[in-house]
Design goal:
Chain A: Keywords: Membrane, Transmembrane, Transmembrane helix. The complex is a heterodimer of chains A (283) and B (301). Chain A is mainly alpha-helical and 283 residues long. Chain A is built from 11 helices and no strands. The termini of chain A are far apart. Classes of the chains: A mainly alpha (283), B alpha/beta (301).
Chain lengths: 283, 301
């Protein structure tokens, strides 16, 4: 594992330095605005700096991650004295955990130094944001692991994260119900459950990453036995969404609700299985 | 110590590319890998190196499973060509990476060879010409000081002078470091001057392993026939490499005493045995395909 971390850090040294410089600029701007323009609205470090740093660093991480595949660095790393599982964990540590942790340390450190009265609030915001970002990162990582081409990884992530956002009110209701039972831990229960869910997704991603061969890099779904489940997943979740809209009690409404799931499932099927249609007038 | 490839099978997009491929690479050997375009040479290299996971089979090194024992992986170096990650970095940056990747990386040798071949140390590899990129990949492979080096078309794109130097580089590497080198190439004439033996990849498997001196059954003849048409038995038992009028150059894949008697008959004015090369063995191995193409060409004509 040490070799994997050392090798990946050496390869991506310039990008890590660039991320650090951008982070420093953000910190200077944030602290500067607090010290030079007191009383400006929305300038609490607790509200802004931590999430901003996380978002900026994770955008850089996503670019680095996708770049590894397009530059065929992945292909070479598979031949090195690190396993596929170690490479997966290295990326999770350096491109997901490290940015989130670093942003939290910077945010809490500066809040403690400059606005100590908002420290508890900063802690609450950071833990919730971090848990949510960690969960979303786990979804991106598993999608990026399973799906081959970079543009399909982006499309799959947008689709899945869109679903997560749409399911947001239901999830919030779920946590509200849990919190009413465990009220003393209200502030912590959501981040902890979210983190556990993310860890589970990362564990599945780790397992899958160990069995992925470089020859599937151009395939929409790189894991053979997940091809049909993904087509079915797209159909079912889209159907759940369309059927939860109002006006689906009539037959017309029901049929209308089937249109989008069928279209998306067919499009997914075409990308995943690449069926060939022979059009010919020959007898 | 040997690298043992045992019953490797690999399907790519439901097409069987490799099936029960087995062979051994011994220390200090230079081995050629030949096969027709799309025969699976690059897939085989990728599978041995760990880029691709085999569907079936086993790769062993020092009695250990090579794929599962990652600490052995710096004992084998393979840079896939022409697309690879090296293109996006300068030799200087690549050196810092390879020093971490290969514990025996020879930094001073790498620097000396970069200087000797006049490669720009600061420019990215993608700005190099095709030949220079191929040369750089060879330098990287040897500087890794890996015990096993896989080279895919290493002489492709190199001019004659650089090619000679690279061949010398390959021989020196084997002499000085006892490295084992597996070379995939279509240039059989170049291979003949370099390798100890050749593996022929045909029908998704290693169809034959040969060294020129071992192939007593494969014979090459130049002959002149007397009649209007080429005697039928020649087409049936050999591969015609060239024909000008009544003069034919032919390779027999399985030369027998019976054939020798027929060649000594009155149908021929002149018969001479020529020295066999790997290219001839290759042609002989694909005699059936070559024959069907010849027939197609004759029908078209």
């Amino acid at each position: 594992m040490r070799q994997a971390l050392k090798l990946y850090t050496t390869i991506r040294k310039n990008q890590f330095m660039m991320a650090a410089v951008i982070g420093m600029i953000l910190i200077v701007l944030s602290v500067g605005s607090v010290m030079l323009i007191p009383g400006m609205p929305n300038q609490d470090i607790a509200d802004a700096l931590g999430p901003e740093l996380i978002v900026v660093w994770l955008i850089i991480a996503v670019i680095v991650f996708l770049n590894d595949q397009s530059r065929r660095l992945d292909t070479w790393l598979y031949t090195q004295n690190i396993s596929r599982g170690q490479l997966f964990l290295t990326r999770v540590i350096l491109l997901v955990v490290l940015p989130i942790m670093a942003a939290n340390v910077v945010d809490l450190g500066l809040t403690a130094a400059l606005q100590p009265h908002t420290l508890i609030e900063a802690l609450n915001i950071d833990s919730t944001v971090s848990a949510n970002v960690f969960f979303m990162s786990s979804l991106f990582v598993i999608i990026a692991t399973i799906i081959g081409p970079n543009w399909l990884k982006a499309a799959g992530t947008i689709f899945t994260l869109g679903l997560v956002v749409l399911a947001g009110p239901t999830v919030a209701l779920f946590f509200k119900n849990i919190s009413s039972v465990t009220s003393p831990f209200e502030g912590f229960i959501q981040p902890v459950v979210t983190m556990l869910a993310a860890l589970f997704i990362f564990a599945v991603g780790h397992y899958l990453a160990q069995n992925i061969s470089d020859d599937t890099v151009d395939e929409a779904v790189r894991v053979h036995y997940l091809k049909w489940p993904i087509v079915i997943f797209v159909f079912v979740v889209t159907l759940m969404k369309t059927m939860s809209s109002s006006g689906r009690n009539s037959i017309d409404g029901f049929l209308l609700g089937l249109v989008l799931p069928i279209i998306l499932a067919v499009v997914t099927f075409i990308f995943v299985f690449k069926p060939t249609f022979k059009v010919t007038w020959d007898k | 110590m040997a690298l043992v490839i045992e019953n490797i099978s690999k399907k790519i997009q439901d097409k069987q590319v490799l099936e029960n491929v087995s062979f051994e690479l011994n220390q200090g050997e230079i081995v050629g890998l030949v096969g027709r375009n799309g025969a699976g040479k690059t897939t085989l290299f990728g599978t041995i190196a760990g880029e691709l996971l085999p569907d079936f089979g086993h790769i062993g090194l020092d009695d250990l499973d090579y794929n599962k024992t990652t600490r052995l992986h710096d004992q084998l170096c393979y840079i896939d060509m022409p697309e690879n990650w090296l293109r996006y970095y300068s030799p200087k940056k690549i050196k810092t990476i390879l020093k971490v990747a290969y514990k025996n990386f020879d930094e001073s040798w790498y620097d000396a060879e970069i200087k000797r071949f006049g490669l720009n140390n600061i420019k990215r590899i993608r700005t190099y010409s095709k030949g220079m990129r191929a040369l750089f990949a060879i330098i990287v492979s040897f500087a890794s000081r890996a015990q096993y080096v896989l080279l895919d078309e290493p002489l492709d794109g190199l001019d004659v002078l650089i090619r000679d130097q690279v061949k010398q580089l390959i021989v020196n590497q084997v002499i000085q470091h006892n490295t084992t080198i597996l070379i995939a190439s279509h240039n059989l004439i170049e291979l003949d001057t370099l390798v100890d033996r050749i593996l022929l990849l045909k029908n998704q498997t290693i169809d034959r392993t040969f060294a020129i001196e071992d192939n007593k059954n494969i014979k090459k003849y130049q002959l002149a026939f007397t009649g209007e048409e080429l005697p039928r038995f020649l087409r049936d038992s050999g591969t015609i490499i060239a024909q000008t009028g009544h003069i034919v150059t032919i390779v027999f894949n399985d030369f027998s005493e019976n054939l020798g008697i027929k060649l000594a008959g009155p149908e021929f004015k002149f018969v001479e045995e020529l020295q066999i090369s790997s290219e001839d063995v290759f042609r002989a191995s694909f005699a059936e395909e070559a024959f069907s193409w010849q027939q197609e060409l004759e029908v078209d004509a």
